[in-house]
Structures are given as C-alpha cells and as structure tokens.
Amino acid sequence: ANAELGGFKICAINPEALSTDEFKTNNFKMYPNPLMSADILNFKFDNLPDNSVTIDIINIQGKLVMSKNENLSNNKLSLNLNTLSKGLYFVKISTTESIITKKLIIK
Fold first, then answer.
1. What is the pLDDT of residues 48-65, one digit of tens each?
2. What stretch of H or E contains 29?
3. Dihedral, CA atoms, 36, 62, 97, 13, nearest 10 degrees?
C-alpha cells in the first residue's frame, strides 16, 4: 500500500504586523507584581498620547471587578486593590491609541 504524504505551505501575510513602532506608546510599568493583598498597585506611563487612561481589573472568571478612568497629570496612577481577593487577575490598560492586557497576581 502506497501512502501519500500531505504537504502544507506557510505564508507571511504581513511581516510588519508586529513592528516595534506600534508599541512605542505602550511603555509603562505596573508594580509591585505580585501584589500583597493590602498593597497599592502603581502605574507609571511613558508617552501617553493625551494623559487619559482606563484601567479595568478582570478576575479569572472574566468578570470586571474594578474600572477606573483617569486623567493623569504626572503619568502616574495608584490603585488601592484591598477589596480584591487573592488570586490571578487581568489588568486591561486602554489609552486612545492602544489596549494592553497584563497578568496580576494578588497574594
């Protein structure tokens, strides 16, 4: 019995899709991570387009547990997360130019 082997092709549709230029406005720090349950979560942004940022905290079940829309004067923001239980969360940071999601662990 002769068996034929199947072939496949890989095509690069848009090789520039992940160029580093896209991510220049996304420079920020989120700390501390992991966060102790009584700590404050801090953000420091570089090059925010209009000083406006929305931060959504989403639990592991996908439920929005906190949302803050802030206009920053000094590119810094602090959130008190002492109402959240220990566990894994997703932090969605939205600006006028981009949306980034990061993992956050509360111990």
1. 778 889 999 999 999 999
2. strand 28-31
3. 120
